[in-house]
Amino acid sequence: MLHIHQNVSLKNYNTFGIEICAKNFVEINSKDELTELFADTKWKQEKKLVLGGGSNVLFINNFEGLVIRINIKGITQTINNDTVFVEAGAGEAWNDFVNYCVDNGFCGIENLSLIPGSVGASPIQNIGAYGVEIKDIFHSCLAYELETGAFKTFTNADCKFGYRESVFKNELKDKYIIVSVVFKLSLKKQFNLKYGAIEQELSNRRITKPTLKDISQVVADIRVAKLPDPMTIGNAGSFFKNPIIDSKQFEKLKLEFPDIVSYPSGLNQVKLAAGWLIEQCDWKGKVHGNTGTWKNQALVLVNHGGATGLEVFDLSSQIIDTVSAKFGVSLQREVNIIV
Question: Number of folded domains in the chain?
């Protein structure tokens, strides 16, 4: 039988390490437990927050409702010729799942190594790194509809993936809880090495014929060099999205800032490196009260100890204002702000 806990600290359930409290808290370990929980109509009406790894949230205040921590585990696979369909429970740690796929020779997910968070959160955010996004490998997910109590399967097209966007962040926000995800991977070794420093780092290591494990390890090492470990210092990884602007605006910026870092982003659009923009505004490595930006990556905001969510949020607002003043570019927060 499910047990609802009261007045639970969420400090250990968010990677920022913000000390706030949930009025009610429950951990879900199976689909049946979700059905059991919402058989009580009280919880259907209560303010709710679904929490996975807590790696992409910033709490501003205590949560006066029900926090549902999804801990559904299990990994299975079906192989059809060279295609592998791998299904994972929403509560699986994302990097553990990536390592499972790499160890079993399932190709397509290796560039997403060492991203914090859970499998269930991955399609909501359409997480991505080093030239790969969830939409590239996502096949389907199973989700529980809060209003009806029914389970529904969403296809790739149903999810309406965009840059760090999906249907679950927009029109279906707070209406479904993802319980498992199916990824479409391959036994063929078709690597994506062009983005970021992967190719250069492989060359530095004199690896001319990389394996899946080589690529996964290189990606992990690059991330470790740039990003702080949440177990050591509170953070949620990249705090801002890389802004996308039109080509005309980019050409004007390029004239004024010849070294601006950019990437192609579809027809007549250019993606800018938010970290570079922030660094040019002298924010990199700055300490601001109990918070600040990471010394190796200005895109990451950190909790040096004892920071409140409001302190982190206020710092992010200052960064947005200074980048806008210098470049005329509006940064958007990637982290979900929970008020």
Answer: 3
